[in-house]
Amino acid sequence: MEDGTDFLTQLSIIVTIIYVLSLTFTKLSILCLYIRVLSYSSVRLAAKTLLGIVLVSHAYILATLCTACIPFDAFWDFAKQSTAFCQPQAVYWSHAGLNVTTDFLIFILPLTVLHKIRCPVPQKIALSVIFVLAFRYYLSKKKNLLQHTGLS
User: 50-63, pLDDT tens digit by residue?
Assistant: First the structure.
C-alpha cells in the first residue's frame, strides 16, 4: 500500500510541474498576442512588463516545486521528513496568489484600450459584454475557491 501512495505522490508532483508549465506558456502566448495585436505603445509596454513578471513569478513557482523537499524524496517518504527541509504551506498559497494576480492583470490589460478601438458601436458593446461575463466568471471561481478552502 505504501508503494502505491509513494507512486501517486511522485506522480502528483510531476503533474503539478506540467500544469504550471502549461499555465506559464498559456499566459506567455496570450501576452505575445497582445504585443502583436495591440498597437498602442503604452499597452505594448505594459504587456512586455507583464510578460517579464509572468516569467519571473512562474520561474519562482517552478523552483519551489522542484525543491519541495530537500532531499527531494522526502516529499513522499515521510520517514525522511523529520531530517529534511520541506517548503512551508505558505509557499503554496503564494503560488495561488501569483497565479490569480497574473491572471487578473492579463485579463484587464486589453480593457484599457477597449474604448479606443475603431469598430461599430454594436461590436464594442458585444466586446464589453464578453469581458463583463468573463470577469463575472472569474469572480465566481475565486469565490468558490475561497469557500472550499475556508478562507471566506
Answer: 999 999 999 999 99
Residues comprising the chain, all counted: 152
The three-state secondary structure class of 43 is helix
The span from the CA of 142 to the CA of 147, in Å, is 9
d(CA 139, CA 136): 5
pLDDT digits 0-9 by tens, 91-122: 888 888 898 899 889 988 988 888 788 888 88
Contact 86, 69 (CB under 8 A): yes
Question: How many separate helices (H) and strands (E) can be counted in the chain?
Answer: 4, 2
> Strands, DSSP E only, in 32-137?
69-70, 85-86
> E strands, 33-119, where?
69-70, 85-86
Q: Which residues contact 31 (CB under 8 A, 6 or more apart)?
A: 47, 48, 50, 51, 54, 106
Q: 150: phi > 0 → left, psi -120 to 50 → alpha, else beta; which?
A: left
Which residues does 121 contact at the CB level (< 8 Å), separation at least 6?
none
Q: Are 106 and 27 in contact (CB under 8 A)?
A: yes
- pTM of the predicted model as reported, rounded to 2 decimal places: 0.78
